[in-house]
Amino acid sequence: MGVKSTFSLLFLWLFFLSQINAQECPTLISPLDGDTEVPVDNLIQWTAVDGIIGYLVSLGTTPGGGEIINRRSSGLNNFYQPEVGLPSNTVIYVTISLFLPDAPIRVCPLRIFTTERVTDPPQCTRLFNPQNNETEVRVNTNLQWEYAPGATDYRISVGTSPGNYDMVNNELTGNRLVYGFRDDLELDQEYFVLIVPLNENGAAMGCVEESFTTGIPTISCQDSDYPIISIPNIIALCENEDFGLITAPDRARGYRWIFIDSDGSETIVSETSQLRYEQIGDYRLELYNTLNQFGATIECPVSKNFEVVYSQPPIISNVLITRQNSGLTLDIRTEGTGNFEYSLDGTDSTFQNSPVFTNVEPGERTIYVRDINGCGIAERSIEKELSPQDFPAFFTPNGDGTNDFWQYRRPQGSDEIPYEVIHIFDRFGNFLAQIDPKSAGWNGTYNGRQMPASDYWFRAISFTNKEIKGHFTLKR
């Protein structure tokens, strides 16, 4: 870096420091630094300072302290009015700080003054929010009143008729200028307020009662203000679960789930969009949207009763298949106490209430049964594609009652007979027997003569005219 560049940077830095130093601290002008007998409601004012972006004000009872106000912004105003006045007969320490552009806050030297000794009770005050005789006041309003010079506390009384302070009676607020009610006020109600300022010398005398009136609702629920409600009439508590969980299918501003006891008493069991339930019985769901006026909330409710019942997953016990020229008729038999519905070929298909399907085209299918209350789904394949593994590998026709006949092995729990006929051949291809689908099977004889132990062949023809070939062993 050259000498010229270094000199330029040094010049800019000195210029920046000179600009900061040019921001002289203000002088206290009301009251003056060191003044005594300053009124407790005195406006704090100082000389304006150019080139700043704001002031911070602190007032304390100790040097540099902020017991009265602490680093309160006055914007670009070179004055500040303490909201609740100043304590009497007290040394007040004033700290003015300057917001500087692109520089740290500058804290100016302390200034002090001493307030007057207040020897009289304060004068009365008056409401400014709401104002005396104001109407259409919001029900969630806070009372606010003007500062009474010299006051260190306020006593407030509120009632619903003149002189009858049935809501608030002689309550001390402290050195504050606002009072908030614990609950919202009533709509269309006149309220009477008496505020009495006080200090160590006594209470203000002759303070006048003021009043205001809350608003009268002029709105009412329209059709579009009500929520839509579409909860089912029946909800299941599945017998294999400890509890159920349901979420309201419709959006609303508020929710109330209510359990209705056998004696008619009602208990709110949830006020969210979701209900966890552990017992059967009668319930009601209330949905509501809200309208607001004068700070009051008006509900636009709808409700629907529903019942929680025990239910259980379905069990497919059997499928009865009847073959007709027009196709198959399927009759699905189930177990369980639930309320079931039925479908073919997928859970995305249409379910029907009847367990009977007619005119079903032959072929491999899967049936589905589900509890309509959501407690589970069962499935089973029918018209299973045949394969050689569906037939026994051997049989022993020796009359002992075990494996005495050779026949297609039905799946456990099924009465389905998926083939139309089976032909039996010896190993030379000679036809020996044709098995009736409803018979016990081949007993190992041909024309009344027992066939020898050997391997034999079969050809099974399904109802869809598919052939399955294989072999098995006859053992003696």
What does this entry look like structurally?
Helices cover 4% and strands 44% of the residues. It is mainly beta and 476 residues long. The chain has five domains: 3-114, Immunoglobulins (Immunoglobulin-like, Sandwich); 127-214, Sandwich (Immunoglobulin-like); 223-311, Immunoglobulin-like (Sandwich), CATH 2.60.40.10; 315-382, Immunoglobulin-like (Sandwich); 388-474, Sandwich (Immunoglobulin-like). The strands form ten sheets. Strands 10, 12, 13, 15, 16 and 17 form a six-stranded mixed sheet that branches. Strands 3, 4, 6, 7 and 8 form a five-stranded antiparallel sheet that branches. A five-stranded mixed sheet has the order 18-24-23-20-21, with no helix packed on it. The radius of gyration is 47 Å and the shape is elongated. The protein starts with a helix and ends with a strand. Residues 1-22 form the signal peptide. It comes from Maribacter algicola.
